[in-house]
Structures are given as structure tokens and as C-alpha cells.
Specification:
291 residues, alpha+beta, five-stranded antiparallel sheet
Amino acid sequence: MFPHLLLHFFPICLILTLSSALTIPTESSIVPFTASLSSSNDTSNPAPSSPTPNVSVAQIHCDGSAYKRNVLSASCLDAISTIPEGTEGLTIGDRDTGGDFDIELPYRWISADGFCIFDIAKPQRLAAGYASTLEFSNAAKQLRNQCLGNGGAEGGIAVNLGFGGKLGLIMTSYAPSVRCSGPPGHPLDSCNDIVTLMPTTSTAEIFGRSGQSGVTVEIPDGFDSEDDTCKVKIDSTAQTDVATWYELWEAVVAVDGMCGRFGMVGTAFSLGARKSLNVDLTYSRAPVDNS
């Protein structure tokens, strides 16, 4: 996995008549941006023989109806600062396909205040995309300049990214309920193991206590990083609640990006249909300064 890169339902499709013909589902909050490609049925791996993909010219489309209004420029500037500017070509694919990709989707960069996010978009029919993080960084800057400059406040999408111009990047607003605690310290990169490997399915699950009727995921539940230094716990103030793993993944990304990024622990709360689920991110031991 590419180390430490910081990435509800009922989608409404917006068909963009741009060169890549991406159809991006949107919703009342944030959806898993697995775009469907209407112009081709390419299921092959598009990676070229060259180790660095050709840098394509991003096409920017600002649309507040599809990607939300009142997007904060300062927040998006902070989110952009978390996107590496590497020139190495990386393979990009869906995490639930069993493939071995450098970046597994969904993937998100989030601002420290949680109000701006950038999501990678890939056509559903495309097995794998190929791009550098520098392309996403440049596209994010273009989105901010064109959609949020001169008093603008609309979200938007950049298309024609990566090898073959088949990838996209979405900029939109977000409003997670997150509370950080503890003094700032050094971030624990192993929390990214959980962000990268936890499930992100969009099927409704019933989270509940053992013995409750219809429960599909018993709580408390959680995940540990491979080195056991970062832990995520999922619990509820109710006996049962309904949520998707994608919603909980969003919450983990938010806590990691808003709290873990600064070496703090944190909690995302008011999750699920009944707003009773919460996600805690903790360190099993304090991060060590090896500098």
C-alpha cells in the first residue's frame, strides 16, 4: 500500500459530457465515488510500460447542485496540503476486488476541520487506473482555484486524469461530528492500515448487542493496525442501529484526518440511522518521537 495517504446512500447520477464520460453518483451526504463509465467497457489494467504516467490536462466542472455549495476555500487549501506530490505512477483500484493496488478505493483526503474532502473517482467498469499523486494534487488546486476563487463556493469534479484520462477527483464539503482529545503529538502512521483495509461496502448492516434480533454485526466491534499501535472501536448507545461500512469508514477517515493527523485520539459520533453509533480511534501506546 502507498504509505499514509489521507481519502450516504441513495445516489443521484450526474452524467458529465466531458472527454472521459464519467457518471458520478452523488447524494445528500457523501457517497462512495465509484463512477460508471458510459463510453466504454474497458476492464483491462491500463498501466503503461513507462513507470510514470503521461500527465493529462484536467477538465474542471463546478456544480454546487451535484457536489454541494458553501465549500470553504481555506479548508480545501488545508486538505490539498495533505496530498503528496509524487511523480511515480501508481495503480488505483477497488479494494473489494482482491487486486493488489497502490491506492485502494474509496480513497480520500480531508481537511483538519473536516469541512473539505477530495475523493478519487474511477469508472466502475475500469479494473484499474494509473496516475501519480502529483496529478491529483494539481487537479485539487485547479478545482479550488476555479470553483472557489473569486467568491465561488461550489464543489466540483476534475476529469481526464491519469493514464488514458479515465480517472477523476471530486471536491466537496463534509460535516463530520468529531471530537478530538489529548495534547497534540506525533501522528501514528499505522492508523492508515485501518483506513486502507477496513470494509467499505454500502449494504445496510444492523449493528447491535449479542442476542438482539436481526443483528449482522455484533458490537462492540473494531479493528487493530498490524503493529497493534492504533485501534478503532465501534460501539453504540442503543441496543441496535443501522449503518453501512462505508459510513463508518468515512468516520474513521475523519477522526484520523482531524485528530490522528496531529497525534491526538478522537471520536466520531451521531452515526447510523438512529445516530447512536460512535467510532473511537485510540493509540495502544503513545507515539514515539524518533527524530
